[in-house]
Amino acid sequence: MASFVRRNRVGVVACVAALAGSGAVAVDDPALVADDECLAMAPGAEREQCAVSALQRRGLKMTATRSLDDEASNSTAGAKCASLSAPENSVCKSVVEWAATGGGKYDTHASSWFEDMQTITGVGYQQGSLDDFQRLYYCSPPGGKACGAPPCHCSKPPCDTCLAGEKKQARAGCAGGSLSIACKPPPTAMAYKGMSWPTMTFPGEKEMHIFAIGDWGGMDGSLNPIEDRPAIVAYSWGKRPGASVFPRTRWDMGHKELLCSHKQFITCFNSDGGADCAESCGFVKGVDDQPQQLVAKAFKARAEEVDPQYILNVGDNFYWGGIEKTCGTPMDQISFTAHHQFDQIFETMYQGSGLSNKPWLSVLGNHDWGGRVFNNGWDQQIAYTWASDRWVMPAPYYMVTVEYPDQDFSVDIFMVDSNVHDAKEPAKDSEHNICGSAHNPKDANCALFGGPASIATCPAYFAALWQEQKIWLQTKLSMSRATWQIMVTHFPCGEDGENQAFYRRLHQQYGLDFLVTGHRHDQELWSNSGMMGGLTCFVTGGGGGITSEHPPHGMDSSEYGFFDLTMSKAKMHVELVALNGNVIKSSWVYPKSRR
To answer: Which among 343, 475, 481, 523 counts the fewest CB atoms within 10 Å?
Structure first.
């Protein structure tokens, strides 16, 4: 995928020449013709805009290399402040001065350029001081020219934070100094590994439903990235509020013949499925260009009807590479980058009657670790647990017990990180390798925050994480006295690293009743799978953050959708729900007899 750029990012920074402080550039410049980023854009003004931004990034020179600690402090409290004239702010100085005092904030486009100002600084862009604009460009730089340090003075201190006046939501049950892991962030993202989230209890005699969804989080094209990263945009109309789907390659059903390359698919998006869109791509206008929105609509409609108690989320929550900042933000803080991505891709998408305030029990997918790198902000997805009243991910692996006292049954849910399957030797499969040397920075290091220490040690890190989870699973399943045992993980049915021997053992020897997975971008129901020793498993990778494995053929296919589980003491009804709300596959599961 040659259009991907520096460190596994996609797309371009969409900014006007005035905002970026650059003059016009001819679109036939040879340097631009060879620029893959601009080839993905529409012709004319949009392509010229792309070209200006691409040239700026190639010419951008940072005055000092950020250390690991410097990168970790960006967009978090405690960063060392500096004046706008300090060397670390040389990149942003001229554009901040122009924005604050040179006419920028009076421009007709100012309301869109500086739309994050109120959230970050606590004041509107029209009232913002020079220091306030420095704070904006430190946290969310319009056009990409980021400040390296926050201001020492501003209108609404503290000036080294990026969410002025933002108050954390108090989770229910956390008053009075509770020591529960639900109430206090850990010192590092790994500190709560294997621990139990507080028991959830749902009284009543009504039908009990669980929804399951995965691979649902699209690209946040309206984010102004930090750390000199390009915007998360893959096609000409992708820089917009809300989620934009990531276009993946498409293969035949046997995954042997490439039907549509990434660049071919981008052409379909740019032309709205026009004549230059290859027929082999199977692009379905109105479906492939908005699958997350369509799945979310069906999700909300069914939630209003059946009132699910909670959601099982199998990961790949933010494409392309998870939270678009480097690992290391303190666990008791949320960077503006994470705030923006959660707001655009999650919070505004999954609300409504029957859905708002429902717990999302979540795991990381390979793209949440970074996709082709391991040092993105995966720890911020864990930290968001303590900034939300419904997002639950206290560690890469953990368990939750759910009790239904009036119906006399319970469920033990084991949330597992299976991303070892995309953590290969550094030189291998660079496009599908969290540990790859092709896209990870040479000095990538998340060791201080609980992650891999280097590219070389990355595969061993994930192998060790998987091995400790295997022991943990067998131990916890042996101890479980719940009616049901369910495992939730990212990598799909059919992939356990042991040709299904491990999953067969969990089912036949340790009593695992049901497996919930994702990763493959479709919806699959494996009922009483022979290759998995009779274990029932499903893949719910069609949440719409990325285009489906195969053409969807309309609103009633199994490429996009989610699952609805109706639970009771005696049985579970598993239903695959399509975009139009229809149930297109179903199965019954019965709890395995306890020893």
So the answer is: 481
